[in-house]
Amino acid sequence: MQEATYQKWNAQVTAWIDEAKANILEHFHEPLDVEQKSGRRDLVTQVDKENEQRFVAHIRESDPTARILGEEGLGDDVQDDKGRLWIIDPLDGTMNFVKQRDDFAIMLSLYIDGVGQAAWLCDVMGNRLFHGAKGLGVWLNDAKMTAPANLPLSEGLAALSGPLVTHDVDHMQAIAAASLGMRIVGSAGIAFTKVLRGQQVCYISYLRPWDFATGKILAEELGLVVSTVDGQTPTVLSYGVVLVATKQAQKAIVAMQTA
Ligand code: 2AM
Ligand code: CA
Ligand code: CA
Ligand code: CA
Hints:
CATH topology of the largest domain: Fructose-1,6-Bisphosphatase, Chain A, domain 1
Bound molecules: adenosine-2'-monophosphate, calcium ion
CATH architecture of the largest domain: 2-Layer Sandwich
Strand content: 25-35%
Number of domains: 2
Mean pLDDT: 97
CATH class of the largest domain: Alpha Beta
Number of helices: 8
């Protein structure tokens, strides 16, 4: 993406995110309107829906020919990745928001013909906005980020998802044992930020497009790898067990699937 185009989008999307943050903070000390989706651990609140509705309205106005894939279904019915596609997770880590009022994120990204162009990932309570564009680099707020060290799995912390570890899916317990320690944060967005910053060498979870599309653009721009747990390239419309990792950690994790 051209730098001038990115700067234009960055100014707009940052303003949309500030509005979403303000909406979250308005509801912060009140009981939330919480509904279950697929089960008691899969929640949605009015804040998720209000944020998505506002993002969709802003995108419709600023980028009228684009399609929108939003978790709460207020965008379009997207079945392919052709053309301009915005992918939105209006509140990532809803369980954390409901139970902790901490460790949740807002994620938006723009893809064109399946290729990631620009991404915004906001750690709301940490006041950290990770943003960047293909070919231009990644910023944490106003500071340009440098690529994290390419550490092996054995020399770093591994972020895994609770259900995958509990049921030992895809050798998760062996991966945890091979690392320096396991961490579980409960938000895909926040987990991605820790790998971007070099605090953790991998994050592995069962993810849907809006959970990884934004982090993927930022991670790849910093020399990290995003793949399925068996080493395939996920498309922005795929879902399954997806990882973000240093190159060395990714190799070790993929090798453990066939060992
Ligand atoms: P969400 O909060 O936006 O739904 C931990 O639950 C992480 O996995 C969160 O980032 C959450 O995103 C995501 N996730 C993906 N599918 C989920 C599901 N079916 N139930 C709960 N969380 C899910
Ligand atoms: Ca959800
Ligand atoms: Ca999510
Ligand atoms: Ca969400």
